[in-house]
């Protein structure tokens, strides 16, 4: 009697082929497919790593520029803080008067410009610098050049020029000057004159000496008031400090 294998011998190649394909399918599904997924995940992770690394390198290269921008923003913020708004000039004057009282000096503040606030357009300032540079490059033979005025080289184009007249002793005047320069206001001392006073000199102390630099912003006419009686102001020295107070526009606040 023939066995099952002998009876179905002609179908053995087909059965072997079916078993082989089945085994290959199982290997592909349970072996190759998970391995392919693992490789793909690893490749995506590596690609993300290199993309993150390139992005970080680009950001690191931008750090100097970002640092400069940040420093520029801080400088502009500091500039805005120290510039005196037009509506706070009176407060600035009161601060100087308070410093005078604390430093034991007599203080008088006078406007140096009849038009009040001086404003030099940026274009004009740039043109001056460019002209100076061009003249320096075009000169074949050096010639004596006038020294630039301090007022023409101020760091800000909008300022109120005033004269701060101090009467007192040397130590007190120096103390006042130091305290004035360390105030949280944008200002520069652009000139100073000191003279010795006569012992018996009598100084008139008006309520509103000359043209008031703090009313000229509101109107153009000179504001005068009745003067007080003459009185002797103690102090062996009289110092006139030419000062530029940098003013911020009201609309910029």
- Average the pLDDT over all residues and give the rounded result: 73
* CATH architecture classification of the largest domain: 2-Layer Sandwich
CATH topology description of the largest domain: Alpha-Beta Plaits
CATH top-level class of the largest domain: Alpha Beta
Number of helical stretches of at least 4 residues: 5
How many strands appear in the DSSP assignment?
6
Radius of gyration: 42 Å
Low-confidence stretches: 144-148, 206-211, 218-228
| SSE order | HHEHEEHEHEE
Largest sheet: 6 strands, mixed
CATH superfamily of the largest domain: Ribosomal protein S6/Translation elongation factor EF1B
What is the SS-derived class?
alpha+beta
Gross morphology is rod-shaped
State the helicity in percent bands.
40-55%
Give the termini separation. 113 Å
Strand residue content: 15-25%
Question: How many discrete domains?
Answer: 2
Written account of the structure:
- By secondary structure, the chain is an alpha+beta fold.
- It folds into two domains: 4-82; 84-252, Ribosomal protein S6/Translation elongation factor EF1B (Alpha-Beta Plaits).
- It is built from five helices and six strands.
- Strands 1, 2, 3, 4, 5 and 6 form a six-stranded mixed β-sheet that branches.
- Helix 3 (89-103) runs antiparallel to helix 5.
- The longest helix has 71 residues, at 12-82.
- The model is unreliable at 144-148, 206-211 and 218-228 (pLDDT under 50).
């Amino acid at each position: 009697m023939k066995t099952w294998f002998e009876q179905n011998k002609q179908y053995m190649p087909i059965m072997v082929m079916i078993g082989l394909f089945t085994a290959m399918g199982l290997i592909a599904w349970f072996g190759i497919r998970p391995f392919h997924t693992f490789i793909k995940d690893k490749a995506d992770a590596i690609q993300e790593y290199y993309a993150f690394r390139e992005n970080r390198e680009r950001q690191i290269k931008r750090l100097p520029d970002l640092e400069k921008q940040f420093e520029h923003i801080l400088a502009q913020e500091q500039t805005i803080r120290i510039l005196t708004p037009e509506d706070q000039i009176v407060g600035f004057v009161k601060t100087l008067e308070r410093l005078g009282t604390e430093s034991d000096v007599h203080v008088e503040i006078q406007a140096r410009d009849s038009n009040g606030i001086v404003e030099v357009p940026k274009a004009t300032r740039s043109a001056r610098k460019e002209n100076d540079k061009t003249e320096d490059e075009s000169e074949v033979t050096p010639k004596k050049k006038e020294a630039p005025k301090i007022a023409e080289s101020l760091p800000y184009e909008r300022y109120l020029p005033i004269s701060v007249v101090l009467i007192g002793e040397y130590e007190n005047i120096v103390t006042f000057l130091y305290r004035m320069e360390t105030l949280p206001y944008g200002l520069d001392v652009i000139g100073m004159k000191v003279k010795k006073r006569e012992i018996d000199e009598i100084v008139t102390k008006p309520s509103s000496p000359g043209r008031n630099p703090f009313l000229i912003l509101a109107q153009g006419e000179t504001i005068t008031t009745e003067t007080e009686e003459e009185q002797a102001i103690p102090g062996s020295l009289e110092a006139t400090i030419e000062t530029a107070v940098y003013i911020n526009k009201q609309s910029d606040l």
